[in-house]
Amino acid sequence: TFGYNPEQPILKEIDFTAKKGETIGLVGHTGSGKSSIINLLFRFYDPQQGAVKIDGHTIADYNRESIREHMGIVLQEPYLFSGTIASNISMNDPKITDDMVLNAIEKVGGKDLINKLPLGIHEPVVEKGQSLSSGERQLIAFARTLASNPKILILDEATSHIDTETEEIIQHAMEVVKAGRTTFIVAHRLSTIQ
Predict the structure, then answer these.
(1) pTM of the model
(2) How high is the pLDDT of residue 3?
(3) Nearest CA to 179 among 15, 23, 19, 9?
């Protein structure tokens, strides 16, 4: 049970289990509690009653950073930083090499994107990736998630702003990134999840 105001719970006695490797769909209109469940999972907030557990352990027993380093999220409108495609995928983590970046972008279907750019993965990215299409930005976000290798994946309306040209590529990218991970897909419409 959780409420941003503890006196007014918005999630009441929610109880579900997501097994390892399973995909869970959270569907509902704005204000139905989808994002609140994700906020609890990321431990931006803690529930007033009950607990969120991962592998049987209450996540409140761990610091927030250690929980989040095992989670990846792809948002409806991914944010790209000024830098390069490689730095946006690796997030400047020295453990993620250029080969790992290239492997991640190719696995999610971004090989054509990289091949058309003069500097490949070292192509500069202007703030928010304005020089890239929404589908290309989304591919970079999927590659970023794949490179970080999370155990839990959250796709928050991740396909809602995709042009039809890249929709098939993005669908493939989702399948690649989901493989072997517990995945939560958040959407307003059931058709998006299907």
Answers:
(1) 0.82
(2) 94
(3) 23
